[in-house]
Structure formats: C-alpha cells, structure tokens
Automatic annotation (TrEMBL):
Its main location: membrane. The chain crosses the membrane at residues 7-25. It comes from the Eukaryota. SUPFAM superfamilies: Cytochrome P450. Heme binds at residue 432. Its cofactor is heme. GO terms for cellular component: membrane. Gene3D superfamilies: Cytochrome P450 (1.10.630.10). It is a single-pass membrane protein. This is Abscisic acid 8'-hydroxylase.
Length: 491
C-alpha cells in the first residue's frame, strides 16, 4: 500500500514537472517556427494560465486607476501590444487608423465583448453583451426612446433636479461634486426610465445597490459570500426584484402608468408580441437593459461632470469665457423658465468645454471587442478568439493627433477633428446610445453651477478611486461654494 502511495506521489511530481517545462517551453517559444510569431503584436503574456491578471488587478486597486496597466505597456511597446488576462489574450491598439477599422467593422470581423464578471453582472440580455443579432433588435428598440422629444422633456426634468440640488448647497458651503453628481444623475436616470422620484430611503438603497453592482463589474468572478463579486450579484438580484414588482403592478393596472422608458418598452412588447414575437423585447431583455442604462448613464456622466469642474478650476481663463457665454444666455432667457434644447444649442463654447473634458478624462478608456476571424490590422496578425481593445485614452492624449494633448484647450474643437480622433462616446455601430442625453446633462449642470455660485476646488489631488469602473476622482472634487445669484424658481 505504502509503495502504491509512493508511486502515485512520483506520478504527481513528474506530471507537475512536465507541465512546468511545457509552459516554460511555450513562454520562451523554444522550437517554435519563427514564422508563427512574426507580425504578432509585441508584449508579455506573463505567467502560465493567469498571464498578467495579477498586475491588472493591482492597477485596479491602485490610486492611479486601472488604466495604469495599459499606459505602462503602451509606453513600453507602442501603439500595438498584447497581454493575457483572465486566461485570454488581449491586444490593445491605439491608432486612429486601427480604431476606424475595428469600430466601423465593415467586414463583421469583431463583436463587442466584456470580461466575464461584467457580462454576469449586467446580464446576458444587456445591450452590452447580447449576440450581434440580439444587439440589433435591442438597440433598435431602445434607440427610438432617445428621440428629440424625449431629450427635450428630459432637459426640463434635469434642470429642475439641478435647481433643487443647488438650492441645498447654500447651507453646506462645501460640497463634494462627485457625490452630488452621482445623486443627481441617478435620480435623473430613475425618473426618465421608471418615473421613480421618491425622496426617501428606498431610492438611496437602490442607488447603493447600483454602486455595489458597478464595483463588482471589475471584480474577480468568485462567487464566495465575502467577495465583491458575490455582493454585486446579490445587489443585482435585489434590483431585479424591485423591477419585476414594478412591471407586475403596471401590467395589473395597480399603478397609474406614467410616460417613461419602461412603460414604452412594456407597451411595445405587449403590442408587438400579438404579431411578430421575434421583434419584441422579452421581460428579461427589458430588465437587463433598464439596469444597463442606469449603469451606463449614471456613473459616466457624474464622473465627466466632476472632471469638468476640476479642469475648469485649473483653467481660469477658460472658465471666464464660459461664464461670459452662460451669463449672456441667462440674461436673454426668463428667470422663470427651465432650460430648453434650443438654449443648449446656443451654448457653443460650453459644448467645446464638454468635449474637451471628455477628451482629457476619457471616461471609458478602452473599448473591448472579440475577434471573430483571423485578420491583419496594419501589418499585425490578430487571431480569431483574441480580444482586441481600442485604447481611446492613448488616442486622446497622442501628441501626433492633438497639439499639447495634456492642456485643456476647448477651442481646439473650433476646427473639425481628424476622423476617429475623438472617441469620448465611441463610434460606429456601438456608439453611445445616451450621448445626447449625457451632453445635455453636462451643459445644464454647467449653466446652473456658474450662474448660481462662485466656487473653488479645495482638494486638487488627482488620485483615482480604487475599483471604479470609470476613472473617478478619489477626492470626489470637493468645492467651496458662495451664492452669486438669487434662487430661481421656474414654473
Ligand atoms: C458622459 C457620459 C457618457 C460617456 C462618456 C459614455 C461613453 C460611452 C462609450 C465610449 C460607449 C461605447 C463603448 C464601446 O464602443 O465599446 C458607450 C456605449 C453606451 N452608452 Fe454611453 N456614455 C455616457 C453616457 C451614457 C448615458 C447617459 C446613457 C444612457 C442613458 C448611455 C448608454 C450607453 C449604452 C446603452 C451603450 C452601449 C451601446 C451599444 O453597445 O450599442 N451612456 N457609452
């Protein structure tokens, strides 16, 4: 018996040794046909199986943010490099030419793909993760919710929210822009999507759950009870439970049905399913996509607003030009009316401030795609099954694309930009669905902030929050505020 155990032990040791030698062989490329690596993007695949996952996770947990992982390798290898994360090969590309090929996707060689933790958290029926065929149907159904009429209604609602929020700043004296913006954008999303506008613990709990869901999106997909991922999945379940209850009550006529995105989707689904079921969204699709729109719209817009306030504070000459435009608009319009889409269309310099903030902050730093067939991009061989990521942040900060890329110069957008050089909202078939909404929120916020308060940033630290899905300031950008105009009460 003892001998048998000894033999088993030798077998295990030999198998482990053989595996280690095989992996070292693979990493060093011994005996490989030199042809097979020619043209493959440079880079380090790291350790067997886990690749460079540990380094990636270390970036997520560092104060420089998860983009640091990419930045360091981009500097080392150039515009194209490969790495291995969570057992898969990832290539990062950062030229406008490659962005054009991949985002246009004329030959259907790429599809959108997120890391597993993201797909599990937002749901497989989410617009972010659905198959290309399902994506077409869902995007089609969702995109007409973002009509000019909806945006005009939304601008008024958002203006009202901002005016109310700014009123409460009087007593505070100091506010943390990110916290305030997260609250306001969450409320705006909930109102627009589901007509939820209660000022109570319920909405706070829901916002907390969405926060946990967002944190879990970058977490290691381990379902153990104490993990960030598990907490995110639980929060998702609670969120879905609330949404299911709401849908049931609306269908049973227990709630007066308001005009919102959820109601449009439910009515459309009930109406279309009487005819062609393949054209309607299922309840699963509706629920996953309501959650997706909250996640896609709240955190991104709040982070963008926060960076914009910081950049304006650091560039007082830009702030002065912006103020002149906003005060001239305030003088022209009645103090008793909410802002309209036409008002926003008149904010030409402010729109460039928004665009420049999005360029500098690159809220979504890279866009992931799955390679569906072997192909070649600008001389590099890219294999089927690899992930290819368009590194928008590098493009935004490339001195061959933008002069003085580290400077905040809104007037750089007086002239038309080079194609595929501005990727704040992506481009091509997966362009941000809520970009007009996001721009509108940023402009309304700017108008009310600069015409109501004088403000000063009191902590200029640029460290990035750990575990954040989008680059968010760790300090949240605290500002000191002093009122300069009487309260406005539009009706
Ligand atoms: C400043 C705020 C925002 C920024 C910077 C932003 C940025 C982006 C970017 C870069 C993409 C494309 C990613 C890719 O190609 O892989 C995207 C997609 C998307 N965004 Fe936004 N977004 C913002 C606000 C919003 C808002 C307010 C909503 C909705 C209410 C929204 C909904 C979406 C959706 C649904 C997609 C997925 C589109 C698809 O895959 O077809 N976003 N966003």
């Amino acid at each position: 018996m003892n001998q048998l155990l000894q033999w088993c032990w030798y077998l295990v040791v030999y198998a482990a040794l053989a595996w280690l030698i095989f992996q070292a062989w693979k990493i060093l490329g011994i005996g490989r046909n030199p042809e097979s690596t020619a043209g493959i993007p440079p880079g380090n695949r790291g350790l067997p199986l886990i690749g460079e996952t540990l380094q990636f996770m270390a970036s997520i947990k560092s104060s420089r943010g998860f983009y640091e992982f990419v930045r360091v390798r981009r500097l080392r290898y150039g515009n194209y490099f490969k790495t291995s994360l969570f057992g898969e090969t990832h290539v990062f590309v950062s030229s406008t030419e490659s962005a054009k090929v991949i985002l246009n996707n004329d030959l259907g060689r790429f599809s959108k793909r997120y890391i597993r933790s993201i797909a599990e958290i937002v749901g497989d029926q989410s617009l972010l993760c659905a198959s290309p065929q399902q994506h077409k149907l869902i995007r089609n159904r969702l995109s007409h919710l973002f009509s000019t009429t909806s945006i005009s209604i939304f601008i008024k609602q958002f203006d009202q929210l901002i005016i109310n929020a700014l009123r409460s700043w009087d007593h505070k004296g100091t506010v943390v822009v990110l916290d305030e913006a997260m609250k306001i954008t969450f409320r705006a999303m909930c109102k627009m999507l589901m007509s939820l506008e209660r000022e109570d613990e319920f909405l706070e709990r829901l916002q907390k759950d969405v926060g946990l869901i967002c944190e879990a999106m970058l977490a290691f997909p381990l379902r153990l009870p104490w993990t960030r991922f598990h907490k995110g999945l639980q929060a998702r379940e609670r969120f879905m439970g609330t949404l299911e209850k709401m849908i049931r009550e609306r269908r049973r006529g227990l709630e007066a049905c308001p005009e919102d995105f959820l109601q449009h989707l439910l009515m459309e689904a009930d109406h279309i399913s009487c005819g062609d079921e393949s054209q309607s969204l299922s309840d699963e699709q509706i629920k996953d996509n309501i959650l997706t729109m909250i996640i896609a719209g709240q955190d991104t817009t709040a982070s963008a607003i926060t960076w914009m306030v910081k950049y304006l504070d650091e560039n007082q000459e830009v702030l002065e030009i912006l103020k002149a435009e906003q005060f001239s608009l305030a003088e022209k319009s009645s103090p008793n009316s909410f802002l309209s889409l036409e008002d926003l269309n008149d904010m030409s310099y402010s729109s460039k401030v928004v665009k420049e903030s999005l360029r500098m902050a690159s809220i979504v730093p890279w866009f992931p795609r799955l390679v569906l067939q072997d192909c070649e991009i600008h001389g590099y061989k890219i294999k089927k099954g690899w992930n290819i990521n368009i590194d928008a942040r590098s493009i935004h900060l490339d001195p061959t694309v933008y002069n003085d890329p580290d400077k905040f110069i809104p007037s750089r957008f007086d002239d038309e930009s080079k194609p595929y050089s501005f990727l704040g909202f992506g481009q091509g078939g997966r362009t941000c669905l809520g970009m007009n909404l996001a721009r509108a929120m940023m402009l309304v916020f700017l108008h009310r902030l600069v015409t109501t308060y004088k403000w000063k940033v009191i902590d200029s630290d640029s460290s990035i929050e750990k575990w954040a899905l989008f680059a968010r300031l760790k300090s949240g950008c605290p500002i000191h505020v002093a009122r300069i105009r009487d309260d406005v009460v539009p009706s």
